[in-house]
Amino acid sequence: MAKIIRVGTLISGGGTNLQAIIDSTAAGAPGKIDAKILFTGSDTPGVKGLERARTAGIHTFVVDYARIIRACKKGIDDADLPSDFNLGEILEKQQLVTSDGVTSPDRIEFFLKSRAIAEKMLLDHILAHEIDLLVLAGFMRVLTPYFIDRLNRIPGQYRIMNIHPALLPSFPGTDGYGDTFRYGCKVGGCTVHFVDYGEDTGPIIGQKAFDIEPGDTLADVKRKGLEKEWELYPACIQQFAESV
Ligand code: GRF
Predict the structure, then answer these.
(1) What is the rounded distance in angstroms from the CA atom of residue 222 to the CA atom of residue 58?
(2) Which of 48, 161, 172, 230 has the highest Cβ tally under 10 A?
(3) How far is the CA of 200 from the centre of ligand 1 (A)?
(4) What share of the chain is helix, strand, coil (3-state, %, to 5)?
(5) Closest-CA residue to 114 (of 88, 137, 156, 146)
(6) Are 177 and 221 in contact (CB under 8 A)?
(7) What confidence category does residue 2 fall into, taking pLDDT thresholds of 50, 70 and 90?
(8) Is the CB of residue 162 less than 8 Å from the CB of residue 203?
(9) What is the pLDDT of residues 176-234, one digit of tens each?
(10) Cα torsion for 152, 92, 140, 71, to the nearest 10°?
(11) For atom 12 of ligand 1, which residue has the closest CA?
């Protein structure tokens, strides 16, 4: 048996992946994984996933991104930024937005600063716990190097996992199943990967695929995909547990 790893989770919505992970940690669960969930954080208040966590007796917290970003739009003072925030360093590392002539440097700066303010609040909650792994279970925010470097303290040792609703490297971004469906793919799938400085670019841990039959709707694709996600995510967390 692997050691029991300590897992933190972040969500944004319904939390069906979170539920699958919670269920797989229960004693006697088929395919029981060697993990204990210490907390569930959300970027959005009032979502169903928070209720799922509370029902399972898991500590929860909310960092309300929408409210923070609204406040930042009124202006960001240097004093609002985390004391260890270094814009030059983050600009050099980040691979989320590019100066392509479309996105102005001011917008990129606003993006990185406003996210670091929110990420510092996430970190204040997260780093109060000793965790081995942070699991993004339908967390619909990208994370900047400011956040990532404070979790991945040993270079090359990834400690943040994400699930993506497509067979990466195809269809990164927020609507993997929608993009798969609209492209006319005959196979869809999901990917669990480690988080690096890009969007959906980190090393792949596991993938599962499903057939898209003639007549399948987008809703069918999403349902088939989620069913695969619920199997894949616990299996990938277990793989991590066995590797540490
Ligand atoms: C999943 O499809 C996941 O791949 C994506 O967001 C969705 C979250 O669903 N990142 P849920 O909140 O786990 O039900």
Answers:
(1) 27
(2) 161
(3) 14
(4) 40, 20, 40
(5) 146
(6) yes
(7) low
(8) no
(9) 999 999 999 999 999 999 999 999 999 999 999 999 999 999 999 999 999 999 999 99
(10) 110
(11) 15
